[in-house]
Amino acid sequence: MRSRSFTSAMLAVLATAGLLATGSQAVAAPQAPRTPASASTYNLTTVIDQWTHWTPDPYTSSHAGTLYAGTSYFYCWVHGAWYSNNGHSDDIWLLTDDDTGNGGVYVSDVNLDSWGWHHDQQVLPEC
Question: Which candidate, 75, 74, 92, 96, places its Cα nearest to that of 83?
C-alpha cells in the first residue's frame, strides 16, 4: 500500500507542477502588434484623387484602391520608391486606409497640400 500512496502523491505533485507551468504560460499576455488599428493618426490634406498601393511604390502591380482628395488620416511614413507628381519628387510614402475599403495602404506624400508636404515627417512617426 505504501508504494501505491507514494505513486498517487507523486502523480498529484507532477500534475500540479504541470498545471502551474501551463498556467504561468497562460498568464503572460502577448504583446499586441503595432498595427494601423492600434496606432494614432494625424489628419493631412491631399490635393488630388490618387491610387493607393499595398507597398510603398507607384507600380500598377501594387495598386490597391483610391484615396480621394481632401482631408484624410495617416498613421506614419516610410521610405519607398521615388515618385514625382504635383510639382514634387520624393521617396516618402504615408500609411493610411483608403476610401475604397482597403486598410494599411500607402500613398506618396507628393500629393499633399503645401503645409502637409513640408510637415508630414514632423507630425507623423516613422513606420
Answer: 92
pTM of the model: 0.70
Per the domain annotation, does 59 fall within a domain? yes
5 domain-assigned:
no
pLDDT tens, position by position, 28-59: 444 333 445 556 999 999 999 999 999 999 99
In a domain, 25, yes or no: no
Residue 52, domain extent: 40-123
Q: How far is CA 67 from CA 10, 14, 16, 61, in A?
A: 65, 59, 57, 17
Of 94, 87, 85, the closest CA to residue 45 belongs to 94
**Does residue 46 belong to any structural domain of this protein?**
yes
Q: How confident is the model at residue 6 (pLDDT cuts 50, 70, 90)?
A: very low
